Amino acid sequence: MTVVRDRVTTRIASPPMRRRLSPLLVVVAGAAIVVALTYTLPPFRTYQLATVGAYLCVTAGLTVLTGLNGQLSLGHGALMATGAYTLALWQNKFNLLAVGIVVAVLVTTAVGAVIGLAAARLRGPYLAGLTLAVAVVVPSITSTFDETFNSDQGLSVILNPPPESLTVEQWQAWLCWGAALVTVFVLALLTRGRFGRDMRAVRDDETAARLAGISIARTQVAAFVVSAACAGLGGALFAVMAQSVSPGAFPLTLSLFLLMAIVIGGLGRLSGALIGAVLLVALPAVAHEIGEAAGSQRLEGNLALTFFGVVLVVVMLAAPGGLASLRPFKKKGHR
Amino acid sequence: MSTEPPDDTDQGLALHHITVRFGGLLALDDVSLQVAPGRVVGIIGPNGAGKTTLFNVICGFVGPQSGSLTLDGKPFRPRPHHLTRRGIARTLQGVGQFGGMTVLENVLVGARSRKAEADAWAALERCGVAEHARALPGSLPYAKRKRVELARALASKPRILMLDEPAGGLDTEEIRWLAELIQGAQTTVLLVEHHMELVMSVCDEILVLDFGKPIALGTPGEIRTNEKVAEAYLGAAA
């Protein structure tokens, strides 16, 4: 059989085969770049770099769910909140950050599994409606159980000081990007194998996928669980960076921003998730500067959403596959 | 014509008195069929006769109101995503494909053994589309896309291959290739098809349905001369 495959591989040399980068190579290179940047960027830019890392955890998981599996989620902000609050509660009781992050991921995974079970029975606008409800309901839980979550004031997060050799921003960037690179590595391996193929098959044609032996519900729940775990990790990292959590940090607009970011970046591509994460930090920052220049705080609040909307329209017109699909010398019909 | 309940002790797939209603429409009316291992069985009939419904019952997409199925003499309650595990693969009318995946990935989805990649390449070779392995199905001509779907079904190494109008939209040359593939499949084949020349040339046995009712079961020669079949296809005046 190997002979057959080699023969065939030789014969198909003519179509341009997209060379995929090794995930390990990407992670190692990414780590080196991040470390170098943390020693060259000023503290505020290093903080922004850390924020990109935290967002990347979330966007990478969301692009797998929406781009590869075709499930639309408008509730990932709520899953981030779940991770953030879990970490805050853990830290305030035990102050063991590494374990706290793992617990935050596990709790969010469990919440994601419950939502995923319901989501697997819904399609299109009904699924969007369910996740939208989650985005609206979860922050309000903090008011209902205000003794635990301290209502709108939220919780502070107890953290040990960073190692003496690092500044706070460097430590945050290393932590966030360490988590982000592990997330990307794991997702790259997952999506390249059978699980990735199954998710895309379910997205493209459920009937054909079932006939090929794929359990639609199991695949969809698994995709939601993986994505929820990533959102929980991202939420926990945001709690670490802000050293506090409050419902105001996870509004409905955050979920919309996350979705827009992965669409602009390129649905279903981890490189698109990275672009989306950068946009999530860069566009509000630009809006902030313009708002400040105009001297209007109200304008600043709305500009970020406007920017995302405009960028979304422009990118969809110029590159329907998102910014990550823009490849020089790419031939149509092959991938 | 023999549409009596099949003998349970026989190997292979058997349908016993299958009846399916969609509201007031009787889609299948007391259909029984024995598909012995290695046989090529055709299911024909005018449009709306219930051919695809019969396939959907075997695949578990449609549950019969009455009747049962057996596989190798044991009760068989089909579920679509368990079919490949039971050695059954089916192609769909048209081309049910995964448009966002390459041809190789499409076929790999169907190959679920430990040697999935080897099975996929073998199926691609067998269907003559290995050279398009890295292409997207949408970039291929219709006939090639049909071959890709067939390759995905074959990649699971089925013992029962269900083909739902595989010749639809194909030219004479492609149909000849398809006939050769079916004859050399070395597996049980259930074939729903309108192309009579193909059905008559490859099938060992043919079941004819009309308005959900089995009206004939026999060899191609018997079916060709059956008056009820001619009447169903051409009308009472025939």
Automatic annotation (TrEMBL), chain A:
It holds the Pfam family BPD_transp_2. It is found in: Cell membrane. It is a multi-pass membrane protein. It comes from the Bacteria. The keyword Cell membrane applies. The chain crosses the membrane at residues 21-41, 47-65, 72-90, 96-119, 126-145, 171-190, 221-242, 248-267, 274-291, 303-326. InterPro entries: ABC_transp_permease, LivM-like. This is Branched-chain amino acid ABC transporter permease.
TrEMBL record, chain B:
SUPFAM superfamilies: P-loop containing nucleoside triphosphate hydrolases (SSF52540). GO terms for molecular function: ATP binding. PROSITE patterns: ABC_TRANSPORTER_2 (PS50893). InterPro entries: AAA+_ATPase, ABC_AA/LPS_Transport, ABC_transporter-like_ATP-bd, BCA_ABC_TP_C, P-loop_NTPase. Gene3D superfamilies: P-loop containing nucleotide triphosphate hydrolases. Residues 13-236 form the ABC transporter domain. It comes from Paractinoplanes pyxinae. This is ABC transporter ATP-binding protein. The keyword ATP-binding applies. The lineage of its organism: Bacteria, Bacillati, Actinomycetota, Actinomycetes, Micromonosporales. SMART domains: AAA. Keywords: ATP-binding, Nucleotide-binding, Transport. Pfam families: ABC_tran, BCA_ABC_TP_C.
